[in-house]
Every structure is written in structure tokens, then in C-alpha cells.
Amino acid sequence: DTAVSQTPKYLVTQMGNDKSIKCEQNLGHDTMYWYKQDSKKFLKIMFSYNNKELIINETVPNRFSPKSPDKAHLNLHINSLELGDSAVYFCASSRQTSTGELFFGEGSRLTVL
Amino acid sequence: DAKTTQPNSMESNEEEPVHLPCNHSTISGTDYIHWYRQLPSQGPEYVIHGLTSNVNNRMASLAIAEDRKSSTLILHRATLRDAAVYYCILRGGTASKLTFGTGTRLQVTL
Asked: How far B46 CA sits from the closest chain A CA (Å)?
């Protein structure tokens, strides 16, 4: 069983559309994250949720709205997609400790045309 | 978050040990040193972490300087599958985020 699974793996869409990426973890972790990796391969944290509560929001445009229906799921909805949103989005989870290792999903590659 | 400095790239021959350095001169007393790696077309993967003492696990060893201002990730016998970008990250506090830098791209050749 995949520990952290994201869907879809690939997403190609037009500018202005709205799209969602889903993430699920079966590790029983309290904390989940979304990271964005751009074309220069720089990995940047976007959001973190702990037990369905937002704890990190890294000045991401409000077109991006995370939603955590329960602690095993963290979905990312993006409104009015722009060319600059093209990237690989990684979901991750961990226990809520400073030493808890993060387990990452395989990534969702979003291409905005 | 305290900053880390790593070489952009390193090369190694297969079956030889690799020492990946990381400087973190502004580390605070509560910061843990974490190492992750990202293989091509995959998500980052945890490698090892430590606070003050050297650490060993099945993947690697972590050597931490006595003043904690630097550390070295040691791969004892590099294989082609170890070719990846290796990230050295400081993390402190229960709610702190994991902030990735540019990492070291390790190339392993036959």
C-alpha cells in the first residue's frame, strides 16, 4: 500500500480553469503538507495542517485553497490557474514532532497552457 | 529557519564512500539536522537526522561536529541508485516546517 498517495499524477489544463489535487495518507499521521517544486527544482512549502487545522500558510496566493476533511486527507484546490502555477506539487505527512520524518507522495505534475 | 550551505554538486565512483558536507553556522540549540534526498522524478525521501551525537542507520551515517556548526552525511558505498539531490535541513520546534535549500546533486559513475 502506498503511504502517501496523490491524484492525479499528471494534470494539463488551460489558463483560467479551476482544478484540484487530492492527497491521502494511511500512516496515521497528524500533520500533512503541500510543497511546490518549480521548473528550477526549488522545493517550497505552501501549507501545513495538523489535525485538520491550518498551521502553516506560506504567503500563497488566495487562489490556492487547501482543504482537510479529516486528518488523513489534504486536498489542494486552485482557482483561476495561471501559467506560473505550472509545477510539481508534492503532498507529505508526518507525526507532529520536530523529529518526525516527512513521507512524500510521488508528486502531481500540473501544466497550465 | 537557520540557513544551511552545501556544495552544488559532487561526484563519486560506485562502491566508494561519499562524504556530503553541510555548514550551518547559525544553528540554534534546539535545531535538529535532517537529511533528505530526491531521486529523479520522485518525491523527497528521508535519509537520517541527528541533534548532537553521530547517527547511523541502514542508509547512511551522520557525523555532527562538536560545535554543531557543520555536519557530514556519509554514504559508505555509493551505488548508481544513490544518484540524487541531497538536502541538509535544520528543523526546530514541534510546529516548524521543513525548508529545503538547493541541496547537493550527487553523481555516481561506474
From this structure: 6
